[in-house]
Automatic annotation (TrEMBL):
It comes from the Eukaryota. Pfam families: DDE_1. This is DDE-1 domain-containing protein. GO terms for molecular function: DNA binding. Residues 1-116 form the DDE-1 domain. GO terms for cellular component: nucleus. It comes from Araneus ventricosus (Orbweaver spider).
Amino acid sequence: MTADIWEKTLRRWDLNFSKQKRKVALIADNCTAHCTVDGLKSIELVFLPPNSTCVLQPLDQCIIQNFKATYRKLLLQDMISAIGRKEQLQVSVLNAIFYIDQSWNLVSQKTIANCFRHAGFHSSPESEELLEDDDEDLPLTELAEKLRNRGYAIPDENLYTKIDEDLATNSEASIQDIVSNVLNSNAEGSDDEDDSECEKKSVSTSDALKAIDDLRCFFTNFEAADEHLKAIRDLEKVVLTTKKSRQSCISEYFK
């Protein structure tokens, strides 16, 4: 997060809320990028008191922890699958983005609602806490133990979810500074290894259709597979009607 992104996002939201004739109080913490923005018509910024986010910010009431734990679970699941195939898991930047997207979508509405309640955002003190859905996947502890049994050094699961807790998540650098750093890196020839790794893996339409056919065979062996087979047919239609395009490099957007 940067101050530039923060301001542009607020102004975009403010325009949308103005069109909807809504008045919104946006509660923000004291991140250095969360600066005051003048001229907002529909948004009123309300900043939390200093050093109180651990108590008052819903994200700190296990939303972030739940997201991180889910991310780690997905990563460990893929590591175990790769070991089963006698391969070494290679995680590119694109793979990490997929993990992030899937992890956030797996954070349930009930988790978010409960975290808001813990932070004091509820209609009344008597409002009941929502129960969590049962997690059908293996918990992080069991996945970590599986890898330890295979000789991999996996830290304690609690430490594993907090391993990047001290990393900076915001910066006072402007968009221009970030773009300049990227362009300078490219000029020096320091291409990102993850990006090059991702570019090497080119999947043709025929390969994609073969993978879909394998999925179809897989689900055919299960009872009540009609719903899954329908989803596979829909996916097949998308593959057949999608034109393949070359993945753009980030530097192309700043020419």
